[in-house]
Fold Ribose-5-phosphate isomerase A.
Amino acid sequence: MLTQQELKQQAADAALKFVEDVAAPDTVIGVGTGSTADLFIDGLAAFKGRIRGTVASSERSAARLAALGLPVFDLNEVDFMPIYVDGADEIDSKLQMIKGGGGALTREKIVASVAARFICIADESKLVTELGKFPLPLEVIPMALASVSRMVVRLGGKPVLREGFVTDNGNAIIDIHGLAIPRAKEMETLLNDVPGVVTCGLFALQGANVALLATQDGIRRLD
Ligand code: 5RP
C-alpha cells in the first residue's frame, strides 16, 4: 500500500515526463505551490541547463527553485510557457479545481493563464464528483473582509478568516465552508466580481488540461 507521500511522488514524477517532451534551451516551465509541487520542483532540478528556467506561483516555490539552482523569472519577462504544473485541493471529472489551500491562488491563476497547458498533479483522493467539500479560498483585500464575509453568508457559505495568514500579495484569505458548487464556472464569475475579492480559488473558467492522478495501481490520466 503506497502512502500519500509516495502517491504524490508518483504524480510529480509523471509530470516530469511532460517536461522531458518540451525541454529546450528557451523553455520556461510554470511551477505551482504546495507539497506535491515541491516534489515536482525537486525533480525539475535534473533539467538544470536543459531549460531556460521557471516562473513560480509563490515566493515559497521561487525560493525552493532558486535553492536548487534553477533560474526563476519574473512573469513579466516571459510571454510563453508550454506547461504549468501544480497540485489541487479538489478536482472534478471536467478538470475544474479548487485551489488555494496554500494561499497562492492568485499567482497560481496568473501564471497558469500564460501557459499553454495546465498539468494538475495529485493523488486520487483529490478527485470529487462535485466541488465544495474543501473550503473554497478567497484572496481578499483587507479593508473588504467584513463586506465580503457578508456576501459569502448571503450566498449560503460560512466565511472563516485564515488567522495570521498574509498572501504574497499582502492580502488576507477567507475560506468559505459549506458552499455547494454545482455550477463552478458561474460561481467563479460571481465570486470574482465581488468588490474586494482579488481571486477565488475556483479554477473552472480555465481548468486543467491534463490531470495526473496517482492511484495504488499507477497514474490515472484525465484529459
Ligand atoms: C496552493 C495550492 C495547492 O496546489 C493545493 O493546496 C494542493 O496542495 P498539496 O499538493 O500540498 O496537496 O493550491 O495554493
Remarks:
- The chain has a mean pLDDT of 97.
- The first strand starts at residue 28 and ends at 31.
- The two ends are 26 Å apart (CA to CA).
